[in-house]
Structures are given as structure tokens and as C-alpha cells.
Write a structure and sequence with these properties.
With about 425 residues, the protein is α+β, with helices and mostly antiparallel strands. It has 15 helices and 16 strands. A hairpin with a 5-residue loop joins strand 15 and strand 16. The strands form three sheets. The protein has an eight-stranded mixed sheet, sandwiched between helices. Strands 13-12-14-15-16 form a five-stranded mixed sheet, with helices on both faces. It has two domains: about 250 residues, Bira Bifunctional Protein, Domain 2 (BirA Bifunctional Protein, domain 2), CATH 3.30.930; about 90 residues, Rossmann fold.
Length: about 425
């Protein structure tokens, strides 16, 4: 029997209320902060991701779904959302628009990694990017927007972690110091970190293995190596966050998993769960647009895994409003009246009254049982007698009361009752 591929899941109707709720809140939040929706292709040139994310990152080396298309081009299913948005920014001349350009998306992403709670090989991201401004006030707004989004969902007991990893001017000295520090522990590092020591030093701080965690705690701190501009940027950002009433913790091990980040990096985590349960994060990537062939353009963004959000909504027992379903069920007592049932159902729907129409030859008792299982508020019953008199039986499924209502008055009565 066919099954969904490992690391993927079917999103069944019973779960759709979570997805509808999150996407609705995401869109509402973005509108409040002035972001416009963008949708990019589900696959891009492989080079776009290897150049932006970093050739020595785990994503590029181990996790990307890449293939040669029929035209002989190297193509990759999107592993993250920022690089495609930046490509679109350059391609469509958005640098000529008023800056910053604010864009958001909800999209599937693909990474061949070990499936874990809230993270699958195909998972879904809500993300947004603010491109074209280097003011730390924009950093504060992006972080505030993420916090507001999670609060609007009903999530609480969250922690904001913050760090600055410097820029191309001050980071080389820090990396040299970090490399020297870790070299003294080389023999005690995990296999992956021994590789990172030479190829991607900053990622040493992000290792989650027990053998490597103690070394990160006492490692040199990036904020001690910041140049004057980065130091001032981080100071101002902290002040803005305090003015916004957003409590934050500076985490010197916070680096994020992509090479394009500069200066500000941040994550939002539940207070119980640890780094593997991070529900969102982001930061600055001031060099990415230029790296992809555009002009030097400051930018920053945020992304959150929707599956992780749902996991935390369930853990915190947040009540999700159900997706609105039709509240009227039309039953019949004879196949001879099906034409009238079909006509009535269509009329109700065109008047914005959602209606279930029974299409089988079930008994009236079975139809009423079906209506009760669905959970509708009203049932309209039509039979041969009702067709003759131009009326229908309207039953209130909550009280059990029923009235005979003319077809001409039925719509107005339903509209009044369903308000």
C-alpha cells in the first residue's frame, strides 16, 4: 500500500483549522506592519542556494533536494525562503521602489534531514523580509512583529534570544580567536564539529551534541570583537527593544544556521523545550543582495516553521476557532424531489448560506443522523407534500423544534436565525 514518503505528512481535514488560523493571523500581522505578499517558484537554480546559504553549511552539503532537469540545468527544491525573495528583489528592480521593501510569504520548503517533532523533510514556513534599510529601529520592528504574531496566536511563555555576530570587517578577527580556542579541544569534538573547525567555524557554537555543548559556553564571545559600527547598532537595538517592552536574553552561542547572516541574529523559543523547539528566528543579511549580483543593500528577515507553531499551540492548549462550515442540511423523503433539493441548495449558497445537500437515497432517519454527526444547526426537509404546497419543514437541531415555512420565506428566516 502506498504511503507518504518518509519525512512528509498528509494534512488531514481535522488539522486544517490550525493551518487556516495561522495563515490568517500571519496575513493580518503583515498587513498591520505594511508587508506585501510574494510567491516565488518552488524550485530555483542550485547555485542560488549554494552561493547564499554557504557551500559548507549542512543544508547545502547534506540536505538539499537537487536534480538535473531536462534542459541539463542544476535545480534545487527551495530549502529556505530568503534567497528566492532576494533574487526576485534584484530581478524585478525593487531597489527602485521606496525602501525598505517589505515582503512576506507562506511556503513549503524541502530539506533532507532527520525527521523530528515539528520538522519534516517537507515542512512549511511563514517568513518576511525587510530589504533596503540598515537602521536598528527596523531590526526592532522585525523582532516586535514576530513577537506580536506569536502573541496574536495565543502563545505565551516565550523567550527572545539575541546576539550580534558582527560584519565582514570585524568577524574575521573573531573567527580567528574562535578557531584557536576550539583547536585546543579538537580531539574531544564530535565528528561534525571537527569538520566545522576548518570549514565553518561559527557553526561550532550551534552544535547540540552533549560532548560539544560545554565548549560553546566558555568560547570567545562575538560581541567582544564587534567593530564600532556593529557595537553601536547592537546597543541601539537593545534600547529599542526595551522601549517596546520586549524582554530579551543575549545568547553568545546564537549564530543561526545560514552563512548570509550579519550583525543581528535572534530566535524565539518556548521556555520549556530547548533549542530544538525554536519556533522562529531570523536576523540581518546585509551582504546577501550584493552576493547575488545586486547593489550593496542592507536587509533582514524572520521565518517560522508552521508545524512547530502547531506543536506549541497544542502543548499550550490554545483553543483554535473551527473553520466555518455550512450550518444547513437539506434532506428529502423521496428521490422524486431531488431536483428541487438541488435547486434550493444552489439558491442558498448563492445567498451566502452554506448548505449540505444529500445526494444519496438514504432514509430520512439516516439523513437526520448524518446531519447530526456533521453538526449543522438547521435541517430543511422536503418531500412530495412540501413540493405541492410550496413549503418545507425547518428543524432546529439544537432544540428539536420544527416549523413549516414557505419556500419564498425560507431564505429570510434562515438569514435571521443564523446571525
Amino acid at each position: 500500500m502506498y504511503q507518504a514518503p518518509r519525512g512528509t505528512v498528509d494534512i488531514l481535514p481535522a488539522e486544517q483549522s490550525y493551518w487556516f488560523y495561522i495563515r490568517q493571523k500571519a496575513a493580518q500581522t503583515c498587513q498591520l506592519y505594511g508587508y506585501e505578499r510574494i510567491d516565488t517558484p518552488i524550485f530555483e537554480s542550485t547555485n542560488l542556494f549554494s552561493r547564499s546559504i554557504g557551500k559548507t553549511t549542512d543544508i547545502v552539503e547534506k540536505e538539499m533536494y537537487s536534480f538535473i532537469d531536462k534542459g541539463g540545468k542544476q535545480i534545487t527544491l527551495r530549502p529556505e525562503g530568503t534567497a528566492p525573495v532576494c533574487r526576485a528583489y534584484i530581478q524585478h528592480g525593487m531597489q527602485n521602489k521606496p525602501q525598505p521593501v517589505k515582503l512576506y510569504y507562506t511556503t513549503p520548503v524541502f530539506r533532507y534531514e532527520r525527521p523530528q517533532a515539528g520538522r519534516y523533510r517537507q515542512h512549511h514556513q511563514f517568513g518576511y523580509e525587510a530589504i533596503g534599510d540598515n537602521d536598528p529601529a527596523l531590526d526592532a520592528e522585525v523582532i516586535d512583529m514576530a513577537w506580536f504574531f506569536f502573541e496574536s496566536l495565543g502563545l505565551s511563555k516565550l523567550t527572545l534570544l539575541l546576539n550580534s555576530i558582527g560584519c565582514s570587517k570585524c568577524r574575521p578577527e573573531y573567527l580567528t580567536s574562535l578557531r584557536q580556542y576550539y583547536h585546543s579541544y579538537r580531539n574531544k569534538l564530535c565528528v561534525d564539529c571537527k569538520v566545522r573547525l576548518d570549514k565553518n567555524t561559527l557553526r561550532l557554537l550551534d552544535c547540540k551534541k552533549e560532548t560539544c555543548l560545554p565548549f560553546a559556553v566558555t568560547a570567545p564571545r562575538s560581541i567582544d570583537y564587534l567593530c564600532h559600527e556593529c557595537k553601536e547598532h547592537f546597543r541601539l537595538l537593545g534600547g529599542y527593544l526595551q522601549q517596546l517592552g520586549l524582554p530579551f536574553l543575549v545568547n553568545h552561542c546564537l549564530v543561526r544556521g545560514l552563512d548570509y547572516y550579519t550583525r543581528t541574529v535572534f530566535e524565539i523559543q518556548p521556555q520549556v523545550g530547548g533549542a530544538q523547539s525554536t519556533i522562529g528566528g531570523g536576523g540581518r543579511y546585509d551582504g546577501l543582495i550584493e552576493e547575488l549580483g545586486g547593489k550593496s543593500t542592507p536587509a533582514l528577515g524572520f521565518a517560522s516553521g508552521i508545524e512547530r507553531i502547531i506543536l506549541n499551540l497544542k502543548k499550550q492548549s490554545v483553543v483554535i476557532p473551527p473553520i466555518h462550515q455550512p450550518q444547513v442540511f437539506i434532506a428529502h423523503t423521496s428521490d422524486r424531489v431531488k431536483n428541487e433539493v438541488t435547486k434550493l441548495a444552489s439558491s442558498l449558497r448563492r445567498a451566502s448560506v452554506g448548505a449540505f445537500q444529500t445526494t444519496s437515497s438514504k432514509s430520512l432517519k439516516a439523513q437526520l443522523r448524518q446531519a447530526n454527526n456533521i453538526g449543522v444547526r438547521y435541517v430543511i426537509i422536503i418531500g412530495d407534500e412540501e413540493i405541492k404546497t410550496g413549503a418545507a419543514i425547518l428543524r432546529n437541531m439544537t432544540t428539536g423544534e420544527q416549523d413549516i415555512v414557505s419556500i419564498a420565506e425560507l431564505l429570510d428566516k434562515l438569514l435571521c436565525q443564523l446571525q
